[in-house]
Structure prediction request, 275 residues.
Amino acid sequence: MSGFGGCLFRAARACLDAGSVEAKLTLTAEAGAAFAAGLLRITPDAPPPQPIRQPGRPPRPRLVEPRTLARRGLGSRQGRAAFIHAIAHIEFNAIDLAWDAIYRFRGLPDAFCADWVGVATDEARHFALLQERMADFGHTYGDFDAHNGLWEMATRTAHSDLARMALVPRVLEARGLDVTPGMVAKLKALGDLRTAEILGLILREEVAHVAAGTRWYRHCCARDGLDPRSTFRELLMAHAGSALRGPFNWPARHDAGFDQAERDLIEALEAQAGD
Prediction:
């Protein structure tokens, strides 16, 4: 922890820059523990955030266009390993997204940083569980290709805390709330209770992560004098139309802060996209 200098923003940048799985998980755990112990300060005179083209990453997995990723069924061990790897890749990116929110967006209430430190440590724990499960199938992180969609959205929203909160937690991460229950059911039907258990845990905790996005999105709208519903519609139409496809897990989305007006909006936009 000596490298953090007591500064949360410096700790966040160190976690972002960590180039190996082991370093990112270790630094995230250290920073989370230091913040919980009151050893990391939100320093108003810290140097301003610098652009980050890519966070630190291991040399593998190879990042490719999403459309080129091979589709594998869950019925084979290789297919199951590839599926777990894909979820692990999302969680690994989510560690960086949480630290980037802290590092990049200054001047928000201290509770904003507290929320995203908690998210970063949760995502690191999720990744570690999935990595351990991959090992049961004879694989490790990096054995399969992956895509860079989550970080690309982080880059597109680096200019705006409002856009980041709307489009990363409330669109990309909320998609996990929609698809995970079906995956859990399939895994249970295949007898893979351990993977189903891990995904069930991730689903329960991701509701709180999406809820944090909702909370801070609405805070930013109130700060900027914007209507959250019409602004969300504009952002969805501009940046996230392809993500609007059902089925939607409305009970989980409701718990994460989506209201009836937003449900009506998303369902209407999905219907338009299907026309």
